[in-house]
Design brief:
heterodimer, A: 553 residues, alpha/beta, Rossmann fold, 4-stranded parallel β-sheet, 3-stranded antiparallel β-sheet, 7 strands, extended, B: 617 residues, alpha+beta, Methylamine Dehydrogenase, Chain H, 5-stranded antiparallel β-sheet, 4-stranded antiparallel β-sheet, 33 strands, 14% helix, 28% strand, elongated, BRCT_dom (chain A), rRNA processing (chain A)
């Protein structure tokens, strides 16, 4: 287990040897191979001695317990050897960007551990530490407004932020008690978490300082006054209330240097060499869009109903400049109540909300997520409570040419371009319905004509066979066949290609066939999805028609 | 003690089913008292008997006993938790052994120990050990507790020297795949699995599944449950991070179009046959072999229906039908334009036929040439018998019959038109025979057999002789009478062979659907192995003038390739397939049986198992 821990902490992984048989003494049995250099590198690690010390400590402690020497036990416990992982972090990530690049797993793990119960599976301190770091991270993302994409998946909620130009993605589970699986080795997870917490702590420190924020984070003085101490006491113990207030995510953080208002310096533009003016324009546009997205919810006041997951929504809304509050009894840090008239959006997730107040939109939580992904406030009509929601699309998919694009995505893209596809589509639908009838007739016509042609062909064939049998040769007037020049050319080209493929070398032919197979499969999958969608749409349409008829009747 | 029952201290249930309850001192059974009281009697007794409450049953004897007053009293006292004895007093006054008062006299008179006056040595030793341990640093005084990890700016001085070599070698773990639309809690309907797909998903191996979850749709966010495999997935990721071998793999990002070799366009390599022009119908069975007159005007074909047919090439008219009474295995027109003679293999004999077509002078001269033969004076021993045709045969056109001892497989002419070679399906050294038609003289050139001979060929210009066995092609020099070369075909079973008119290149078709091109100057291995056909190759042919060769196969197609041979020895031949010709119907799993080029035009003939001969121009 010590080598395993070392490998995890030092980030040593096995390698695939170039000649598996040669290395494995002629056998092809699956084995893992480490580089000898890596193993030697592990041996030089000073932390190995710390681990040994710890082992000795455990042995002594056990002995003392066995002999019931309580004084010794106390003394040993006081002198429990500890170790730090700073140097390993520094060694593995020599630059800060390296650390940011590898932050995905660290964040996901910390967020998972922070939801663990404080009993049983791992140390309480670890859970608390993870929670603290996670909250610090969320607060940083809010302060820097660097969240970009969010996604509600069936596994959990995915977030993607752009920190110093690096995309960082993490997933948080939905807040339910865990059904702890038996086939998971928690010691391995704990070792990973040990390293990840260290890493995340240092990263947080650095990030907070880059924004001139105080680390460990402190709630801004003004906000602190707003939070009355009595209110806090009801909710949590003094020792915990600080973290709780912080994790409420409703207050801004204290800064080391008071922020000068509007200190956004206009960035000078440095044209990159070899960049055309068009590229520069697009870049500029992108930047503008980004700035706009950062201020997506600016000026909006949200209120979260109690059945809505508070933390993710509060986090997202705050990330885009909105103000958010919730019921006072739900969590600490609520800033305004339900009846506040300035509330613009009320997020609810129940089929029939209680008497609605005038002057605010009652919306389902998906609206927030979809708006963030669309980089614009979407029309609210689709998201009213009790309404069948439009599909929630993944923001991480960028369709290439030839991929299947769901129609909702197309609609969204049109919306982003500033068109309003809804009206058109409705009109189209009506037209389509009319067209459908025409189409059917036409199809029937076509069918008939096809049948006739077939009949003709059959007759011709019969004649041919007959003429073969009966010798009297009959000459019929030939028809002038129009040669489709384009098609002929295409045929010729395809034949040339076929012939060239015949001449390929064996290995290249194999590769070529593999590539073509992959391409074909992709097309097939896209077609399958499209067909499924079409079938679904027609089914829905028919149902609609039926219901319409029923209503009419 | 009054012992009435001698069974001892046993559970009395053991006697439950017996009429007696034990034995008395004399060993006689003690019978249970007769109890014939029913519920009513019991009740009446309970009501009437004033002593009922103090009556108990003696288990040992089974008799009813009425408890005495003392006994009832005892029971009451025990119930109350008192002592059984009435006279026992639990609260007797305590008598002190030792008084609290200090006595004036000691109890013992022993003087105090010396060690109670001097410091303890053991303690001293212990203390000195502790002192020593502290001095040596073995025991540390309590450290101040430092629980929370303190963080600082770890990357304050980013030192470029700290980037070690191993960082350059480091392969960062690939990030986890980002979720697609199908993972959404409310995906578009096309991403949901249908029933069959779900079933298929369940039956798949866990490792083979494309998605590790079943897409689901929830009407609203509050209905979304926890994902049960969340912790497992994180754990699997951890395992991947430290147990999976990492390797940098260059992704082959090739454009598949680039893989296709750049060949000259077939259009630039014209002329070659492109379309089917004529069909020669007439045979009723497989047409095994074809041959064409050196002028290119007449075509001869041999078939399984026991006939040889002569056709005019341009009109597809059958000029003559010659019934030979057996399967025609091979047929060859004399390449010498001054001689009009066709060699036909029929069973055990080779017929030399004068077709009597074309110029009357020409075929008359051939007849004269054959008749001018004068038998030598002394009879020489020959492996075959030369027989002059009977008059009946003569009228059909047969001039000479060379009778072999075994069935003849193939016949081929030398370029000059005097010698012809025949292959006998035999395993002895007499497989190959060379005949001289003018002298009616045959010989067997080989002393030993080197395997089953498939095909033989004469070199068109030089005195070489090619013999193809199943896997090798041997080249013999006929003048020096020695083996000059042995070509490895890399095929399992050679079916056919053709030689380039230049004489330096050979192609071999094989039953394992390969075509091997040999450059005799280059090496004994094939210069190129072409796997164009899907089924066994039956025949191959070279064009006499144009750089074309063709191969016919069981898949019913004839592939015409451009095979340019350059005079420059340094330049390798250029092989380009130019046309796939289809037309023959596959019958009995056989497609094209023979292909043949027109001697002057870029036309190709093919004979098939469907009984037709087709001309492609």
């Amino acid at each position: 287990t010590v080598p395993r821990r070392l490998c995890i902490l030092k980030g040593i992984y096995p390698h695939e040897p170039k000649h598996k048989k040669k290395v494995n003494k002629g056998s092809t049995a699956p084995r893992t191979f480490y580089l000898l250099k890596d193993i030697k590198f592990l041996l030089h690690e000073p932390i190995v001695n710390k681990f040994r010390e710890y082992k000795v400590f455990v042995r002594k402690l056990r002995k003392a317990y066995g002999k019931s020497e309580w004084g010794t036990v106390e003394r040993l416990k006081d002198n429990k050897p500890t170790y730090r992982l700073d140097h390993i972090v520094k060694e593995r990530y020599p630059t800060f960007t390296d650390a940011l690049r590898d932050l995905d797993d660290a964040l996901s793990m910390c967020f998972l551990f922070s939801t663990f119960p404080r009993t049983g599976k791992c140390h309480v301190q670890t859970v608390q530490l993870c929670r603290r770091l996670a909250v610090e991270w969320l607060n940083y993302i809010i302060a820097s407004r660097s969240l970009r994409k969010v996604f509600l998946s069936i596994k959990g909620i995915y977030y993607q932020a752009e920190v110093l130009g690096q995309p960082v993605t993490w997933i948080t589970p939905y807040t339910f008690a865990h059904d702890h699986p038996t086939d998971v080795d928690y010691r391995v997870m704990a070792t990973f978490t040990e390293f990840y917490t260290t890493l995340l702590g240092f990263v947080n420190f650095r990030l907070y300082h880059s924004l001139n924020l105080v680390y460990p984070p402190k709630i801004d003085g003004q906000a602190d006054v707003d939070l009355k101490p009595t209110e806090g006491k009801e909710y949590a113990m003094d020792s915990e209330s600080y973290l709780e207030k912080l994790s409420a995510l409703s207050a801004s953080l204290a800064r080391v240097v008071a922020p000068a208002h509007e200190d956004e310096v206009e960035m000078d533009e440095f044209p990159v060499e070899g960049e055309t003016s068009e590229e520069m324009d697009t870049r500029k546009k992108e930047q503008e869009a980004l700035e706009k997205q950062k201020k997506l919810f600016e000026g909006l006041r949200f209120f979260l109903s109690r059945e809505v997951p508070r933390e993710p929504l509060a986090f997202i809304i705050r990330c885009f400049g909105g103000q958010v509050s919730w019921d006072k009894s739900l969590c600490i840090g609520a800033t305004y109540g339900v009846s506040d008239p300035s509330i613009t959006h009320h997020i609810v997730d129940r089929p029939r909300p209680e008497p609605q107040l005038v002057g605010r939109c009652y919306l389902q939580p998906q609206w927030v997520f979809d708006s963030v992904n669309a980089k614009m406030c979407l029309p609210v009509a689709d998201y009213f409570p009790g309404v069948l929601l439009p599909p929630h699309l993944s923001p991480f998919v960028t369709e290439q040419e030839g991929d299947y694009v769901p129609p909702e995505k197309l609609k969204l893209l049109a919306l982003q371009r500033g068109e309003n596809p809804d009206e058109e589509s409705e009109e189209e639908e009506e037209e389509e319905e009319e067209e459908d009838d025409h189409d059917k007739e036409e199809e029937e016509d076509e069918d008939e004509s096809e049948k006739e042609e077939e009949m003709k062909l059959k007759k011709m064939e019969e004649q041919k066979t007959q003429s073969n049998k009966a010798l009297p040769v009959k000459v019929t007037a030939g028809k002038v066949r129009l040669e489709d020049r384009k098609r002929l050319e295409q045929e010729q080209q395809s034949e040339e290609k076929r012939l060239a493929i015949m001449m390929m070398k064996k290995r290249e032919k194999y590769l070529y066939k593999k590539i073509m197979f992959g391409k074909k499969r992709k097309v097939r999958e896209a077609n399958k999805l499209a067909a499924k969608r079409k079938a679904h749409d027609t089914a829905v349409k028919e149902e609609k028609k039926k219901s319409k008829k029923a209503r009419r009747a | 003690q009054d012992i009435r029952n001698t069974v001892g201290n046993i559970p009395m249930e053991w006697y439950q089913d017996f009429p007696h309850i034990g034995y008395d001192l004399d060993g006689k059974k003690i019978y249970k008292p007769i109890r014939n009281k029913d519920e009513l009697d019991m009740f009446l007794e309970k009501m009437e008997n004033p002593d009922y409450w103090r009556t108990v049953q003696d288990k040992m004897t089974g008799a009813d006993i009425r408890l005495t007053d003392e006994q009832v009293d005892l029971v009451h006292r025990l119930q109350r938790g008192q002592f059984g004895d009435v006279h026992f007093n639990p609260y007797e006054p305590a008598v002190d052994f030792f008084t609290h008062e200090v006595m004036i006299h000691p109890v013992t008179n022993r003087p105090a120990d010396k060690r109670s006056f001097i410091p303890s040595l053991i303690e001293k030793e212990k203390v000195s050990k502790l002192v020593h341990a502290i001095k040596m640093g073995w025991i540390k005084p309590r450290k101040p507790k430092d629980d929370s990890p303190s963080y600082y700016d770890l990357w304050a001085h980013e030192d470029p020297n700290s980037i070690l070599g191993r960082h350059k070698m480091h392969v960062p773990a690939p990030k986890m795949k980002l979720p697609g639309h199908e993972e959404s809690y409310n995906p578009p309907p096309e991403y949901l699995l249908s029933e069959e797909e779900k079933l298929a998903w369940e039956q798949q191996e866990v490792a083979e599944r494309k998605l590790n979850f079943v897409p689901q749709r929830f009407g609203s966010l509050r209905q979304v449950p926890a994902y049960p495999r969340f912790i497992q997935e994180r754990f699997e990721r951890c395992l991947d991070l430290y147990l999976c071998p990492r390797q940098r793999k260059m992704r082959v990002n090739v454009n598949p179009e680039d893989l296709i070799p750049k060949l000259p366009k077939p259009r630039d390599l014209q002329p070659f046959p492109t379309t089917q022009a004529l069909i020669y119908r007439g045979h009723s069975s497989l047409v095994r072999c074809l041959s064409i007159s050196p002028s290119g005007q007449w075509l001869v074909s041999g078939s399984d229906d026991g006939t040889v047919r002569f056709w005019e090439v341009c009109t597809a008219r059958c000029m003559k039908t010659l019934p030979v009474g057996g399967v025609v295995k091979s047929i060859a027109w004399n390449p010498n334009p001054t001689i009009c003679l066709v060699a036909v293999c029929v069973e055990q004999s080779v017929l030399l036929v004068n077709p009597c077509l074309g110029d009357k002078l020409l075929y008359g001269a051939t007849d004269q040439l054959l008749e001018s033969y004068v038998a030598p004076e002394e009879e020489r021993v020959q492996p075959v018998r030369w027989v002059t045709a009977t008059t009946e045969e003569h009228s059909k056109g047969i001039r000479l019959v060379i009778q072999h001892s075994k069935a003849v497989k193939q016949v081929t002419w030398h370029g000059k038109g005097d010698y012809l070679a025949s292959v006998v399906s035999d395993n002895s050294s007499m497989q190959v025979l060379i005949h001289q038609s003018s002298k009616r003289w045959s010989q067997s050139p080989f002393r030993r057999s080197k395997g089953m001979v498939q095909v033989v060929l004469f070199h068109p210009t030089r005195p070489y002789f090619f013999v193809a066995t199943q896997r090798y092609v041997r080249v013999y020099n006929l003048l020096k009478q020695e083996l000059t070369k042995k070509l490895m075909t890399n095929c399992k079973w050679v079916s056919s062979m053709a030689i380039h008119p230049g004489g330096d290149n050979i192609i071999c078709g094989s039953y394992d659907s390969k075509l091997a091109w040999f450059d005799l100057d280059l090496s004994t291995r094939p210069y190129q192995l072409l796997r164009h056909h899907k089924r066994a190759l039956r025949s191959v042919a070279f064009h006499r003038r144009y750089p074309l060769f063709a191969s016919g196969s069981d898949d019913g197609s004839v592939i015409v390739c451009h095979g340019m041979v350059y005079n420059d020895l340094l330049q390798n031949p250029l092989l380009v397939p130019v046309k796939v010709l289809k037309g023959h119907v596959i019958t009995l799993d056989l497609g094209v049986l023979d292909v043949l080029f027109h001697p002057t035009q870029p036309w190709v003939f093919s004979s098939g198992a469907d009984g037709t001969i087709r001309l492609y121009t």
